[in-house]
Specification:
Radius of gyration: 18 Å
Structural class: alpha/beta
Strand content: 25-35%
Number of strands: 13
Number of helices: 7
Helix content: 25-40%
Largest sheet: 6 strands, mixed
Order of helices and strands: EEEHEEEEHHHEHEHEEHEE
Strand order of the largest sheet: 7-8-9-3-10-11
């Protein structure tokens, strides 16, 4: 995957979002505090927002170009998006939620069939239940399954563990690891948790007040702390 975010600009409430970056890793983290603009970047990539300036290109496809007036609709981008609110439909069963938006006539890789996806996420037994009866972890796995069954060329995950407590988060993390192992789909993963970055991602963009402050390999930017967790390494002093 080569995702080019070229001189993107979007006015936000407290600052302008200004991003110029290329994402090419298997799993890329957008890391930073709440309110840094991470979700807004995902919404621009997904087509839910129109950039005020700049261009978005995924491989050889231009998804948005403010100067040229190009804005490919979200449903034509081939991108799976899992927002912070899982957005499951309460009036539909789990099976109906999973299949919502899929196109039977559309060619899909063999590993993105219903049985394989539900098997990897261990949600096949939930198929006939209503979403209101599911736990938080089950809801997130169903939402992940729905995104995968759309056979996306890119998957956007917006803090999928943020709403879960510690034990639930620990139970869902292996499914996210399995996701990257089982499916050849590049992922952009938003989080403010260093441990999630280290466990799941290859590259990280560190965001603050609407800008990418640092970008690099996870191993280069994160280090174990004195406690059993990880912290962002301090920036090296400028060379003179």
């Amino acid at each position: 995957m080569n995702l080019r975010l070229e001189n993107l600009r979007l006015p936000l409430a407290h600052f302008p979002l200004e991003v110029d970056a290329t994402l090419s890793a298997r799993v890329t983290a957008l890391f930073g505090p709440s309110g840094a603009g991470k979700t807004s970047v995902l919404e621009l990539i997904a087509g839910l927002r129109r950039p005020a300036a700049g261009r978005i290109r995924l491989d050889n496809t231009v998804l948005a170009d403010a100067d040229a007036g190009i804005l490919v609709p979200p449903e034509r981008r081939g991108i799976g998006y899992l927002p912070q609110d899982d957005a499951l439909f309460p009036h539909l069963s789990v099976r109906q939620n999973l299949l919502y938006g899929t196109r039977p006539a559309r060619p899909r890789p063999a590993d993105l069939g219903f049985e394989h996806v539900t098997g990897v996420l261990e949600i096949g037994h939930l198929a006939e239940r209503r979403t209101g009866t599911l736990s938080g972890g089950e809801r997130q796995r169903v939402a992940l399954g729905r995104a995968l069954l759309g056979a996306p060329r890119l998957l956007l995950l917006d803090e999928p563990l943020a709403r879960l407590d510690g034990p639930l988060k620990e139970r869902l993390l292996p499914y996210l690891r399995r996701l990257r192992e089982e499916f050849a789909i590049p992922i952009v993963y938003v989080t403010h948790a260093p441990d999630e970055v280290v466990a799941l991602c290859d590259e990280v963009l560190v965001m603050e007040t609407g800008r990418v402050r640092r970008q690099g390999a996870v191993a280069d930017l994160f280090a174990p702390s004195a406690q059993p967790r990880y912290e962002l390494r301090p920036e090296p002093p400028p060379a003179f």
